[in-house]
Write a structure and sequence with these properties.
Distance between the termini: 7 Å
Structural class: mainly alpha
Number of strands: 2
Strand order of the largest sheet: 1-2
Mean pLDDT: 91
Radius of gyration: 13 Å
Helix content: 10-25%
């Protein structure tokens, strides 16, 4: 994640605000709740190990379209 960057937000009651998986901006209508498996999936993609046998032994079950494609972009 590039420096000086925050992803996600909370409302006045400290409840999460859904995030668009492609743009990483808040989106109440079509956003997702970022969970640990989303971060881990993005880390596997960054490391190039999504197809590694060990990764296949421990599937993350991130739904299609919920991959955080821009998480590591500058």
């Amino acid at each position: 994640i590039g420096g000086n960057r925050v992803i996600g937000a909370t409302d006045e009651k400290q409840q999460l605000t859904p995030v668009d998986a492609k743009t990483l901006t808040t989106n109440d209508q079509t956003g997702i709740r970022i969970r640990p498996e989303h971060i881990h999936h993005a880390l596997r993609r960054l490391a190039g190990i999504t197809e590694h046998p060990f990764s296949k032994q421990f599937p993350l079950l991130v739904p299609a379209g919920e991959g955080l494609s821009e998480l590591w972009a500058g």
